[in-house]
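>> received
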Amino acid sequence: MKLIPLLILLTVATFGFSQEQTLEERLIKASTIKDFGIKEYIYTSKDLPRVENKSWTLVCQMPYNCHFQPIIELEGNTGDSIYINSSNPLVRYLTPTESFAVTGGHQRYEAKNWVSGEGAMYTIPAGVTVKSVQYHQTGFDTEFRGSFECNDNDYNILWKKGARTAYLCMRDWFYDCPDRERVGFWGDGTPELNQCFYAFDEKSHRLCKELVLRPLDSTFYPGQQLEFLGEYGLWFYYLHSGDIESIKSIYPQTKNFLFNTYKPGKKNQWYDWGKDNKDIAVTETCFMYIDLGTLKKIAQLSGHDADTIEINQKMDSIKQTFNNLFWKNGFYMSDQVNDPDDRANAMAINAGLADKEKWESIYNNVLTKKTYSSSFFDRWVFEALCSIGKEEYALLRMYTRYRTMIPATFTTLWEHYDRWWASWVDSFDEGSSLNHGWNPPVINLSQTIAGVSPIKPGWEKFQVLPKEAFLTQIKVVVPTIKGNVTASINKTANQYHLTVICPVNTEALIGIPKKSFTTIQNIYINGKLAWNGSLKKTTDGITFAGEDEQYIMFLAGAGEWNVVGHGILNMNSPKATPEKEKKEIKLEKKSWTATASVPDSSYRFSGDNIPIPVPAENALDGDHWTGWRDMSKKQYPGQWFMVDMKKQETFHKIVLDNTWALWDTPKSYRVEISDDGLDWSNTIAEGSGALGITNIIFPKKSGRYIKISQLGSDEKYNWSIFEMDVIR
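>> returned
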């Protein structure tokens, strides 16, 4: 985290923060920002209006993570100061806490700088009356138009959080995150560009185009640029946008970068944030091969056909030597590492350098056993698994790796899986962002699992070739430049129903996946028999397009097509479908007080040593970025945290949320209740804390006081409660 100032300097140098922009440039920039207006918070930690005889903190919640400026209306004495910021401590890297002087009488103040987060924090001096608070929301001028829904809500949550994360990381350009850096890395930009075409309207394509046309920089993590200059960046943009002029214009710089600028084997190229068993030699060879294939297609589009001879020579050289250099009788591995890397082996599949005979060995030896990749690079592991027919395992891997993000109350996806520093230090990283644009579930689910993607540029022709695995219902909407493409899947024990809506002036390749059936008997399209093994019928604007090992396919024009396969389907699932969320009644806690076995304190946050208060009352303020933490030492028996609910309440569940400090979960706990805070009941619940959120459930009890005692020991992590709720 001490590198942050350098990264900000790189941002200035590379992406041109300029105080001397022309009026036209400022107007163009302003036109990309949407003003959502003044909004009311959905929750405030204290009821307003309010005045106290001591300094106090008001914490307020938005419905989701967004860009905002806090607003306050107050009355107070001249000379006092109000302090305002996001409740997200990472914001303080870029945006110091703003303050203003109370001028006396009635006053309204709106913060000058936008910040990001899911909550705002106001520090109020004694004697100042807070009349009301609001926030002013802004964001990139685009709308959510795509969607993904299936019968397993875990994946619905991931898609929605992924789309919200991608949107939060859009403004001047694609950010890596809006709180800590706002750097326009190509690595983060690649999945963000991809997600724009599946989640947002066409206005988002402006940022995509900016990334495509951006001058390449060999000093700025060139490995990320190598990841972008092929199928996943340039060609992806062209297929989805049809913008041939931009693609033609970048041919010279792309060729020069691949032929002359990029130097294989150099240190600090950067391919992934994940663990340090990075097999760069294999990985960069695969990306270079992919990029050369894209460069060849662009050469043919842009009138540089003569260059294809040299491009073919380079590709042939890679293909002819790849197995001899890297195949180790069961997986790909260079001499740089001592253990096969899931990233490198996935890319060998994605690049087409691993022939089919090697897939099963790679799957068994590497892809099911290694998880070195970060949430950024897992996108390519996921796609490799699906391309070799292991989509069931791909979905299971996604669920397992996002295990702590799915149930979290945060509305965005994080920089690291499990908040775990995944590079050279194996440790919890408090300084990692909880809203990082490189997370890929949107593209993985909409494009790969639902199977919707363009075949010809500008969606003139597209495919719907699902890989739904154990999912039984899917509905996806893809907002293409031709109009929305909608695909719906509904599976039963004897029927596979695929509905596709094709926009005007498009053609769709629609496939019924053979793998979904134990036995397939026939296929009807819009109520008419189209296939029964021997019969391949052309009727009413749809034609039989052949079949391969995976699909029985049809070509369809504009309109709605109901394709129904009959037979015997395998409905078994290796993953339990999550139960529907029950509506729970949380007890109102604004009047409650909290105390702990240690005095209130603070901790120094990450590399910048920012002081973060962690008093007991933080655990009751409704904000999951703020919390209580025992800073006296690591976990030890005898710690306790107590809440006075001010009156007797009846309840059956206590929720302890320490997602911000994910690994600070109690090693062992005991819960007691009391009517007077002196005489305590027998233990009403006991157990061990879960990672992130601990749900303590017991038969209904009544009491005024709740005491949670920590009984275990942990030499590495403190005990934290970042939010506590009691359920009626």
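>> Residues 1-20 have pLDDT under 50 and may be disordered.
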